[in-house]
Amino acid sequence: MRSFVLMLFLGLMASSSAFAQAQKGKLPLDLGKPGPDVAGQIQQIRADLAEGKLYSEIEAAKRAEVVQALDRISATIDRNQGRELSKADQVSLSNDQELVNVILTRAKEDSRMVCRRERAIGSNMITSQCMTVAQRREAQRRSQQDMNDVQRRSRLD
């Protein structure tokens, strides 16, 4: 009974996050499709990771996690060709799918280029400042850290 409740909870969590993601856009990996489609999706994800444009802001450790999860998914699908999956395999596939989708969705959002048009101080000339979302976040974090450092130093003097 306890395992059934746990499985039901995990299923609901996976489906709710997948539903929320589907509302925003297409999921990187959808295991609800037939086997050849899943293999094509995995191939496309691997190609996008290798190309480095769509997921340019993904960290090396996260990239390795995605590749390992894709390897596990491929191995499970190959091992069970056409047969019904065991409960353990279903849970494993669901967890790996969720891991891949969360990491890749975040990396894709962070890799989005955002441009801002600004006037230089003392000039009417407009320039475009383009950075990825992750670069903007890092610049904001560094700027905040610098301001905190200046305030700390002024209190000590």
Automatic annotation (TrEMBL):
Q: Which domain of life is it from?
A: Bacteria
Start-end of Basic and acidic residues biased regions: 135-157
Region named Disordered? 134-157
Residues annotated as signal peptide = 1-20
The UniProt keyword set, sorted, is: Signal
Q: What is this protein called?
A: Uncharacterized protein
According to its UniProt entry, this protein's organism is Xanthomonas boreopolis
